[in-house]
Amino acid sequence: MSDRDTSAVKKGLIENPKKFLSKNILLVPSPTANLNCSYLRKFDFDLYEGPKTTTYSGNIDRGNLLAYYLPWGENSGYHVVLENNDTADIMFTAQLSGCAVGYIRASDGSGAVRVSHHNIQTANGSTDDAAMKESLDFAQSTLHRGDYRTTPDMYAYYYGIRQKGMISGVSWKFYRQIVKQVGLGEFTVESVAEV
């Protein structure tokens, strides 16, 4: 564990998320959901300089970076409500390899946002894209499997960053990072976008 590496991750995400995610890959751990766990979790990250990309490998439930974590579960859906308070400024999802994510902003001007992470499967265990689209029909913005997994070696990560100093009620911004696995433990950044 490196406090310096974890601090670099937090600083990069808060100060300029698109720039940071364009040059760095965060391998956020992806444990399945534990119903007894809080959505607020502690993280740390270790730096690995690869020949093509800088990678930060994450660890959950240790370290000093407090962030919201939206887990996944087989044939399940989870959500977290992000509010405008000083609890945490960052939200991570587990790695997306077939799941869908979406969010909806509160209409009361509070700046709160509900983010949902769904993994719905068919009877034979395949991703049920139609069911996930229907289950996220309420969302103002979504990211589905077909948006990021165009080949079997493509994955996505979904981040929420709370913007401090915003005058309006909209303070959480969301980003998706699409990565491609090019070797054992080696990835390249394919694209980054605010969603």
Could you walk me through the main structural features you see in this protein, from its secondary elements to its overall organization?
- Helix content is about 15%, strand content about 45%.
- It has about 200 residues and is an alpha+beta fold.
- It has one domain.
- Helix 1 packs across helix 2 (about 15-25).
- The two termini are about 30 Å apart.
How can the largest sheet be summarized?
8 strands, mixed
Strand content: 35-45%
Mean pLDDT: 88
Choose one word for the global shape: globular
- Detail the poorly predicted runs: none
Oligomerization: single chain
Number of domains: 1
Order of helices and strands: HHEEEEEEEEHEHEEE
Helical residues, percent = 10-25%
Number of helices: 4
| N/C terminus separation | 31 Å
Structural class: alpha+beta
Number of strand elements? 12
Rg on CA atoms, Å: 16 Å
